[in-house]
Structures are given as structure tokens and as C-alpha cells.
Amino acid sequence: MKDAFGIPQSLLVLGGTSEIALATTRRLIARRTRTVWLAGRPSPTLERSAADLRTLGADVRTVAFDALDPESHETVLGKVFAEGDIDMVLLAFGVLGDQARDERAPLNAVRVAQTNYTGAVSASLVSASALQSQGHGSLVVLSSVAGERARRANFIYGSSKAGLDAFCQGLGDALHGTGVHVMVVRPGFVRSKMTAGLEETPLATTPEAVATAIELGLRRRSETVWVPGALRVVMSALRHVPRAAFRRLPI
């Protein structure tokens, strides 16, 4: 069970090799978390991540999970929840894609959408149902400021995150009063392997900073978390820029 400050004792990570997810898991283990499930495609990286977390004192197990195979989600995640209550599910999988390439190869764009949106919708609903059945828990979903308004430079990725963000807001409303808390996390540019080689945008952040914001959001039972917080004001302004002017912005 979570303590009075919202820190989970047990954690299921969907996207077990995500740098943000691992930074968050390390932070939560340092606070209270003792049981961790890392779900992802079987790989040496997933096993190394689990081994590293075990050195921090947690009981860490891995489970084969594929975002692109939604038909397996109920079975795979059901087995995890059958092992015992899960206090928090962190949905952290996603792909950035290559905008220029994916515009010319529609199937690549579809893969981005299926991973970031369709797979996430499936995993979120399965997780939410399980959390509701046990009567408590948090579902924390990594969205992105890219979903606030589609930009020419990454509208395929941005549109998939926009869909996920809207879905999770609605899911949170649907679960209000059930004991299940849904929190959407909207980071800006995160310095990670996923963004290596890309030009940084203003207010760039780190996986560790996102992890800190997630912990604070859990303690406050926030519904939406911006990382860094200043992006809330920036994106609020950008949402209201006329479209003709928005096209000319160097973003």
C-alpha cells in the first residue's frame, strides 16, 4: 500500500528500459518502494536494468511485454496483478520516430501511432481495471509537451501524444472517486538516449528532474505535472498563437 505521502510500496513499469522510468524507480526505491516489475521486450538491457535496481535493495522481476501486441496485454498484466497488489503503474514506453523519414513511409508513422497511442490505450485500460479491482493505486503516464500543439517538426509524434494525453485525462475523470489516481506527466525536451543527436529546445530537462517531479506529483496527488514547471506558462501562450504566426515560429 502507498504511504501517507503517496509513495508506492510496489511498482509496475511498462517500458522497463526507459531512462525516465528507471530514474523514477531508483528515486522511489530510495524512499519506500520494495517490489518492482519491469515490463518490456526481453533483452539484455532489460535484465541489466533489473540487476542494477536489485543492488538498491528492491525485489525486482522482469516480464515480457510488447506495446504493439495489445491482444496479449490482459494476459501479461493480469499475471503481474495476480502476484499481489500493485500500488503504482508507470506507463513509460514510447518511440520518437523520425519525422522526415516517417512522412515518406506511412507504415513507420503508423508504428509510432500504434506504440504511443494504441498500445498505451490498451495498457492503460487493462492497468486501470486491475487497480480499480484492488481498490487503490496510481496510474502515472508519460505524455509530452509535444502533444499540446502539433508542430511541423514532429507532428506525427506530437499527435500520438496529444491523443494519449486527452485519453488519460478522460480516464482520470472516469476513475475519480474509485480510489485510483491518474497522473499525466508532460516533460519538455529530455536529455536521453532517445533524443541523442537532436538539437535541444529551451527548458530542456533530465530523466532525474522528471523523476523528482513525479515523486512530488504523487505526494500532492496531482493530476497533471509539467517538467519543468515553467513549460505550463509557455505552452499556454503557444496554444493561443494564431496558426499563421505559429507556422513561422522556429520551433
UniProtKB/TrEMBL annotation:
Question: Gene3D superfamilies this protein is in?
Answer: NAD(P)-binding Rossmann-like Domain (3.40.50.720)
> Keywords of this protein's UniProt record, alphabetized?
Oxidoreductase
Query: What superkingdom does the record give?
Result: Bacteria
User: InterPro entries from the xrefs?
Assistant: NAD(P)-bd_dom_sf, Sc_DH/Rdtase_CS, SDR_fam
* Protein family according to the UniProt entry: Belongs to the short-chain dehydrogenases/reductases (SDR) family.
**Record-linked NCBIfam families:** PRK07904.1 (NF005912)
Quote the protein name from its UniProt record. Decaprenylphospho-beta-D-erythro-pentofuranosid-2 -ulose 2-reductase
State the organism of origin.
Answer: Streptomyces shaanxiensis
